[in-house]
Write a structure and sequence with these properties.
alpha+beta; single chain; Zincin-like; binds diaminopropanoic acid; globular; metalloprotease; zinc ion binding; binds zinc ion; Neutral Protease, domain 2
């Protein structure tokens, strides 16, 4: 496959100041006519006079240049998927007509059908499946779009910008014209035609303009749009207040679509969302689902400035908009909810998902230097690590300067396509800081390891920091990074000690060298509270003893450090079981005082207590043991959970009963209580499932919940507890749940997902049966993710079944999906990324299964397979 390199970037040869699209939707015969105004780009000194337009899966019918119809062969040629017209003038108009087949488009890129509606997804390179165009983010054009369709089947016709015209046409058809006054790259183009229900509202901007808000979904889902609308209005107000960004069109629309590759898409004025990221109702959506809707609605809305008004020069700069926008949505969620809890959730996600990516075969810099398919780089590294890089800059500058710098960025680059360097330059200009070394964060892949050693001598506490970033594919040697380490020092009672003459109790050490020492005059050897707030995305190595960890967990004012201390205690206990020959029962005496202490304070913040009481996942534990023996890890984690469930059964019961609600409440405090209750039930169910306590009272309790649940969090939690622990009645409960929710696809995704995550190798057979279930659809990404991605990524004891059956299912699924939707296949293939860490027997089987896929794989899938296998 051809490789695209950042180093080869050239400005576009031609600009397209104006684009008029005419889309005639007819089942089986959709016609797209594009009228483009083109002109030579003065920034290209070499003045190429050949026009090259991207296209893909297009049936070209005619090409007209300045009113003259061109002849194929003589006047233009098709080279692979591209349209090439030699000898074009300085400025000209070009009209092309193509036929496309949205009905057959299962890749879900470009224009396609989903449940009877037409919709689009153009980022990153889907627009070329709609018409011939310079499909790159640095070509910004003013779009006017006219859609024609059957009025009965598609009463609603939407595109970007403002509606300017509409009317009836012959044969029961009609049209609508939309005009977007803001020049935009074609990846932000969108079109929707369908019969949809609408929730309407208004937002008045800070400067007093009324913006019409319209949320669309299938009619049956109209009652599930309120939370998204509420989240949208809060996002709009927040962006005005915190970033000074006002909305710019007269209308903002969101459409919910069932078949969608990503979570959502920030098309100008017409966001298109995966139903899973916009629909929410307490009866059908868990609390986690509500949180996700809030953050994704905010994320896509915030893109209107960080992404749309200021966009990316090329796809290597993807994190310019994504890292920054994730940072913005994280800050929004922090302001809407508990900041400490949101921070821990974000760090948990980064550490347990992005770190493994950064330490495996797919490791790449936040600004990659090359790719085969850009679709494969919509990654946790670009998004989540990218957000941490923006967060570090916001911390280095301080709130006020950071705001001045983002103001400068938006003002200076409004309407332009720019780079990560441009962003950092604004940070530097406002603050006077030199961020040249800091920029290595964008260029170097891998998780830096920060090793800290300490000594206490003559009234001085010395911390020595050593940073090292391990080699990653294509990057053997790394230079030291600029690493901000926020820290405090706690005395024997857990109180923070003054660190300087002004009595400050927290400081930020900014590391620049491979090895540096800092000294603090304190009266006695303290407990270090390091990397507070997770001030840099590094893997911290410090040899905490158990007493120090207990001190941090009990007394630290920093939410991250408390959670990290709990995690370290759990990891240490699990390591003693996995590698040390100890049993889960051996850990009880050491862990129960810690857990009891967290439970005793749980009232203060139930959501935080839930986080503190949650054991690391099997993947997280497995990533700390080489070679990886997934079954051994599974036995340790599930054994510890069951044993703690038994040892603390009374405490878990008190929590489970005490937190049980009689009526549903939707506020954050109630969500926190439900979360903690689920953790308690999870421990009890593990103990019951392992036969360590009598299952009867718990089964009765869970059955009660299932008979009259207050909300989906409770209902699904009870189902999961029964099914995952194979408690009496689990089959009947599954059947009843499946029957009750058979007409709610998002709930059925959960039903599939619960079954695909039952621990144990026999779940592979169960997953095979799910794939044959009448409600399973290979063309529906949410369903594919619910069964296959959860099995592969969240059920190690099944995926790594000793007989290799999980791998064979995985390979068959990849092959099948690759023919349907290569983006989804490639994303799923990342589930094989732990291959080289597996014990040799499993590694051999997984490698064999994946190697068989290479012949005939799509470009998307081939790139991931190559990385994993080579
Ligand atoms: N829709 C994806 C996102 O918002 C890609 N832009 O992150
Ligand atoms: Zn985004």
């Amino acid at each position: 496959n051809p490789v695209t390199r950042l180093a080869d970037y050239q400005p576009p040869a031609f600009l397209v100041p104006d684009t008029r699209l005419d889309v005639d939707l007819r089942d089986g015969e959709t016609r797209v006519t594009a009228h483009l105004k083109l002109e030579r780009n003065p920034a290209r000194a070499d003045r190429p006079d050949e026009l090259v337009l991207d296209g893909d899966h297009l049936d070209l019918r005619s090409v007209v240049l300045d009113g003259r119809e061109l002849a194929p062969g003589d006047d233009y040629r098709l080279e692979g998927p591209r349209l090439i017209i030699p000898g074009v003038p300085e400025a000209f108009s070009l009209t092309t007509e193509v036929r496309i087949e949205p009905e057959k488009n299962t890749a879900l890129e470009g224009l396609y059908r989903s449940n009877g509606m037409y919709c689009t997804q153009c980022e990153a390179e889907g627009f070329r499946r709609i018409t011939f165009f310079p499909d790159r983010p640095d070509v910004l054009s003013r779009f006017t779009t006219t859609i024609h369709a059957d009025k009965g089947a598609y009463p609603l016709l939407l595109s970007n910008g403002n509606p300017v015209d509409a009317g009836d046409e012959a044969d029961g058809r009609h049209f609508a014209t939309w005009e977007d006054p803001f020049p935009k790259p074609c990846y932000l183009f969108a079109l929707v035609a369908g019969d949809l229900a609408c929730l309407a509202d208004t937002f008045t901007t800070a400067s007093g303009r009324d913006v019409a808000l319209r949320l669309y979904a299938e009619h049956r889902d109209l009652d599930k749009l309120d939370h998204a609308m509420d989240s949208l209005k809060r996002s709009m107000a927040w962006d005005e207040k915190v970033f000074g960004r006002e909305y710019d069109l007269d209308i903002f629309q969101i459409v919910a679509v069932s078949h969608f590759n990503m979570g959502a898409m920030e098309n100008k004025g017409l966001n298109i969302f995966n139903t899973s990221c916009v629909l929410a109702h307490p009866a059908t959506t868990t609390d986690a689902g509500f949180e996700r809707v809030e953050s994704v609605v905010a994320h896509e809305y915030f893109h209107n400035w960080s992404g749309n008004r200021v966009t990316c020069r090329d796809w290597f700069q993807l994190s310019l908009k994504e890292g920054f926008t994730v940072f913005r949505d994280q800050e929004f969620s922090s302001d809407m909810n508990s900041r400490a809890v949101v921070r821990v959730e974000n760090v948990d996600f980064l550490v347990n998902h992005q770190f493994p990516e950064d330490q495996g075969p797919m490791a790449h810099p936040v600004r990659p230097a090359e790719y085969q398919k850009i679709d494969n780089f919509y990654t946790l590294t670009v998004y989540e690590k990218g957000a941490e890089i923006v967060r570090m800059q916001s911390q280095l500058l301080g709130a006020e300067d950071f705001r001045r710098a983002t103001d400068l960025y938006f003002e200076r680059f409004d309407g332009q396509a720019v780079t990560c360097d441009d962003f950092v330059a604004c940070m530097e200009q406002v603050s006077g800081l030199d961020l040249a070394q800091f920029k290595r964060w964008y260029a170097q892949a891998g998780t830096p390891v920060l090793t800290v050693e300490d000594e206490y001598v003559d009234g001085e506490y010395r911390l020595t920091f050593e940073q090292h970033t391990p080699p990653t594919p294509g990057q053997p040697d790394k230079a030291p990074l600029m690493v901000p380490v926020k820290l405090a020092l706690l005395d024997g009672e857990g109180r923070a000690l003054p660190l300087d003459d002004q009595g400050r109790k927290e400081t930020v050490v900014i590391l620049r060298e491979a090895r540096e020492t800092r000294a603090f005059p304190v009266p006695a050897r303290p407990t270090p509270s390091l990397l507070r707030g997770f001030s840099a995305p590094v893997s911290l190595r410090y040899d905490f003893d158990e007493r120090q960890l207990n001190t941090l967990l009990a007394h630290d004012s920093d939410g991250f450090c408390r959670w990290d201390a709990a995690q370290r205690l759990y990891f240490a206990a699990l390591a003693r079981v996995v590698d040390g020959g100890e049993t889960p029962a051996d850990q009880v005496a050491r862990l129960t005082p810690v857990i009891e202490q967290v439970i005793a304070r749980a009232d203060e913040d139930p959501a935080q207590a839930a986080l503190l009481l949650t054991l690391p996942t099997e993947n997280a534990v497995g990533d700390r043991h080489t070679p990886l023996h997934p079954q051994r890890v599974h036995a340790a984690v599930s054994g510890l959970r069951a044993t703690l469930g038994e040892a603390l059964a009374d405490a878990w019961w008190r929590l489970a009963e005490g937190l049980r609600e009689s009526d549903y409440q939707g506020d954050g405090a109630a969500m926190g209580r439900r979360r903690l209750r689920q953790v308690a039930l999870g421990y009890l169910a593990a103990a019951a499932g392992a036969g360590q306590v009598d299952p009867e009272p718990l089964v009765a309790h869970l059955s009660d919940t299932l008979a009259a649940p207050t909300c989906m969090t409770e209902e699904l939690g009870a189902l999961r507890a029964l099914v995952h622990n194979r408690l009496p009645g689990h089959d009947a409960a599954l059947k009843a749940f499946g029957e009750r929710w058979k007409d709610e696809p998002l709930v059925m995704d959960q039903w599939f997902g619960v079954q695909a995550t039952v621990p144990g190798a026999d779940t592979v057979d169960r997953a095979e049966a799910l794939l044959a279930h009448p409600a399973f659809e290979w063309t529906l990404p949410n369903r594919v993710r619910a069964v296959i991605a959860t099995l592969v990524n969240a059920n190690p004891s099944a995926f790594h079944a000793p007989d290799g059956s999980g791998y064979r299912l995985f390979a068959r699924a990849l092959k099948k999906l690759d023919g349907i939707n290569p983006q989804i296949a490639a994303r799923l293939a990342n589930g094989g990324a732990r291959l080289k860490r597996l014990e040799p027997g499993l590694a051999q089987q997984l490698g064999d299964a994946l190697r068989d896929l290479r012949p005939g794989a799509s470009a998307n899938l081939a790139e991931v397979l190559d990385r994993i296998l080579d």
